[in-house]
Write a structure and sequence with these properties.
alpha+beta, 4 helices, 119 residues, 5 strands, 3-stranded antiparallel beta sheet, globular, Ribosomal Protein L22, Chain A, two-stranded antiparallel ribbon
């Protein structure tokens, strides 16, 4: 049974502007494991990766029903790619399965998260 679903759309240019401005967005949004992956990429892929994780965590918090804040923070959710390259939610505050999809264009990243509760 679906507990919640959330979607988010993030502009890559907005994330790029924050990085260019010297804001500590990667450290704010990414867990240590995600940051290690981020640091392996070149600039363009870093923007895509960071925008994807930012958007996915926003979508997760919407599915959880709270938005980003006291109950769900950016570091409470960890998303890493599996061996096939598919993103998976590795750590989360919800006690059921969580499903994620991340899709990019040259300008946007769109994410969807579905939280599932057993019958």
């Amino acid at each position: 049974m679906i507990y919640g679903t959330g979607i988010d759309l993030t502009e890559l240019a907005r994330i790029q502007a924050m990085l260019t401005a010297g804001l500590k967005l990667p450290e704010k949004v990414l867990t240590a494991n995600e940051l290690a992956v981020f640091n392996q990429y070149g600039q363009k892929r870093q923007v895509e990766f960071l925008a994807g994780r930012f958007s996915a965590k926003e979508a997760y918090s919407k599915a959880f029903g709270t938005g980003i804040g006291a109950q769900v923070g950016f570091h409470d959710v960890e998303i890493l790619d599996n061996a096939a390259g598919r993103p998976e939610i590795i750590r989360q505050p919800f006690d059921g399965p969580a499903w994620i999809s991340i899709s990019h264009t040259d300008q946007l990243v769109m994410t969807q998260v579905i939280l599932e509760r057993g019958n």
